[in-house]
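Dear support,

I submitted the protein below through the web form. The confirmation email said the job was done, but the results page showed an empty box. After a refresh the structure appeared. I'm attaching both so you can tell me whether what I see now is the final result or a partial one.
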Amino acid sequence: MESVSAASAMIVLMALRVSRESFRQDVCVLLDRIHGFYEAALDRLLAGKIPSLAPRLLKAGVCFGFLDPVSNIIANTISYTPSPEEEEKDEGDYPRNSILSKIITNTNDRQVFVIPLSPERLECMTVARRSLEGLISFLIFHYRYLENTEALRYLRLSGGDLLAAVRLIEQDRHKSPDEFAFNIISLTTKIALECAALSAGHPRPTVLVGVSLSLASPLVKVSKILRAHCSVCPATIKPLAKLLRSSIDLAGPRINKKKKKRKRDDPSPANTESPEWKPGTHAAFRHTQTLKLLLLGEIHALYLEALARLPRDGLRTLHHCSLIKGGYCYGPMDPVSNIILNTIWYGAQFPTHQDFAFDFQVDMICTRTLMRIECCSLYGLVTFLRARFSSLTEHDALWYLLATNVDLWLAMKMVQESHHAICGTDSDAYKKAAVDSWHPDPDGLVKFATSSLDIEPVKLSHMLAHTLDNCSVEHLTTLMSKFSSTKSKEQVQLLNEVSPRSKILNENQKMLILAIRKKIKADQEFYVKKVNAALNRFSQQKAVDYELHIICGVNPKVTESSCVNLFKKRFKFEYFHINFWVTPKGSPGTPLVLFFAECSNIDNDEEERPSMCFPVLASWIDDARCFCCEHHGTKIVHPLLERYNGRSEDFHKMASGKHGVLNEFIISSYDLAVDDMHAKGGLDLFRS
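What the results page shows now:
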């Protein structure tokens, strides 16, 4: 297996644009590695003495799973039982060289380098090439925003070992050992594994999933037998096959989507053939777009936290508007504090004209406008960092921001430690960042960001670390009033000449604004009604009354069940997913709780499909996946059903009961992924 030193040597290559030659080279190197796995597996299986194993290997002996690749081939071969008709058809003598000739892939065939393979091409491919297809499929279905070529490079760096590639990706995405997110028996892993089996043309994908999950469980006997680098004698084949097949039933409670109890905190099995991992080594991202999408996920979490710290009354009347217009996450403090300070400052400097303000209290932040300010913040962060370090590329700046969880000053420190020369001033960098992120008053932002408030830094940090009250906001507003930009006489005259909307808008524009405002109000009333109904149900279970703080994300396009025609769906969707912050009633100062809800899109459908909601943790944002939300590009934080089941029996009963819509959405996401793989045989699905 290639060592990490080899992985480090590839960092420069990965930073370059993927060329056709490098892509073909990656495929050839990986196929050569996979061919070696099959040679080792044949030696241990003694296929010449057990002819019936040869056709099984060629059909089902793929090299992916949760053991080392050679052990995966053996386990997948032995666990597959063909039908009597197939066994009769496959009878005959299979010499070792004859088997190898059917495994070795001819790289002169151009079709070998097509990713993903169509179902027609898949049937003509060797088991080695189909294994490569499954490896790529697993990675891109398990990890958000991972491109095919990027998955291919990770596999090359890991020597074709799936768990080693997973470790590389986790390290690249800056997961410390304490927050290693990969969980072998999670539903996301099960989805990715079955999609991998389907894309590899495995004759019985559910068998492969069951065996792989069972081998990751405490069936140490099987694991030890397969991991031992010795021959598997004929006398052990039958009992081993029986144990493998029976282990599927033993693993049933974990892999059956309708079962209730599952253990979710079991450690992943060690991979004895993984490369030696050294601290600080990584395989840098090659795709800048991947970095941007991952960073936007991190930034979204920061904005959710900022919404929880702003006072409820202020959000409903003022801050909702100033946050989505000027609440950037770059500034002199940590990202969340910057969002709060920029929001308050912008609201003081650019109050919304009464003719354009809503005539109702706002309980919902528009999902798309929140995504807009998050994108603008990303542009500003990258521009600031590159303005201070002229040698940084856009890719490098994104990487450093991801490494420091979007903390600009920590990123600057890391860049300096990497021996990049600093240049320019903070003022110049702020000015360029404000322009590139379309701030309405760049000069005012520079003056505000480079000045200090008349308050002790420690006191200010402590104040911003908790939910603010109205008095604190008023105090901060007063302190910020001196940081407005100096406007020219022409600008002052132009502002004084701005009259009510009756003089600057025509009749059609007025009607359009009224229609939009009416639509927003109607949508908000609908969502608030559904959220309150869900909160009431949850409060009855927990005996705690909650009050809505703010709705911070809505996806109204969620299917009721699996549907291979999701992309073509034009009619009304059955459910919507929603995030919102709540606070316990009568408990001032209590930390807010982020909730997820799935509710029916029909107004009067509470009896048939009642609204359900559950709390989620910020640390789960990158873990739980919903293909419906990802397909539509909507950032909704979903709860991990598996993790929560271990914490609360009441939650489990609610989620998996007769009207457990949360369980339905997870199952439908699973079916949607697998069904579409069945229907199209491709990999480029559900990509945000």
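Response: this is the final, complete result; the empty box was a page-load delay. The CA atoms of residues 67 and 271 lie 6 Å apart.
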